[in-house]
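User: Modeling request: complex.
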Amino acid sequence: MRFFEDMEVGQRSEVGSFTFTAEAIKAFAAQFDPQRFHLSEEEGRKSLFGGLAASGWHVGSVCMKLLVTDTQRRMREATARGETVAVWGPSPGFRELRWLKPVLAGDTISFASEIVAKRASDSRPDWGILQALQTGTNQHGELVFSLVATAFVPRRNASS
Amino acid sequence: MTTLSFEDFPPGRFGSFGPHHVTREDILAFASEYDPQPMHLDEAAAAKSMLNGLSGSGWHLCSLMMRMLCDGFITRTASLGSPGVNEVRWLAPLRPGDDLTLDVDVIEARISRSRPDTGIVMFKSTARNAAGIALCEMTSPIMVARRASAEDLG
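Assistant: Request completed. Predicted assembly structure:
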């Protein structure tokens, strides 16, 4: 994983894709978002979504899953090359999450992340703060999901 | 049961919901599937992290807040879904054993310009642990049918 100094605004990476099956949509919804249009094909068809639709929190959680998996793959590769690997800190939050189009059963969403801003942390001199635009695009090329995430990223010469 | 419609959400405190108990197993199960970072899965790695101990994924906490909103009122509301979330702030870590409560305020309620039979209700929801410490604040709109059309949705 890269350090704050290695990251530039405009850097973009594709982090992977995921197919939302009806079974996965219903299982997530039953646990976390039991609204009728997330639980039943018929109720989905009658709703504004026009079909069984994934919970927006399911879409966001899958984006996180792919980001983490992609990051861990890059860390393993960097370690294998003998590079020092940066361990990122927790995220203080996100803003402007948009569920632009429904994610329906059978849709395959491809996720990407692009750095949109970076600055030093005033309160934690060993860390920088990065903002990334994370997006999901369906198999028809339509943008279905986006958010602007914030993360703490360690600086290369940090004491720890 | 009466279905809640747009007119039932005037600005102000709407309600408080919970408690919802979160176990270590819940935290590990969500993290294994959706956020397999060591700070959410491994006690030793978590102890060395900025969060000083095992913590739940922020996406887990948001998903739990959604469940508490559903159990609290959304499944008996003429909800048409949500276009997104304005902001989520993760303020303090979710810990194993936490009993979550959710304070829900309506900060704005207006009629949709493009769909006059629908209202847009802006909620601010704050999840707290048993000590009253705010763990997460979420500001998000939900589209809710107005009373006349809510009766059609049943």
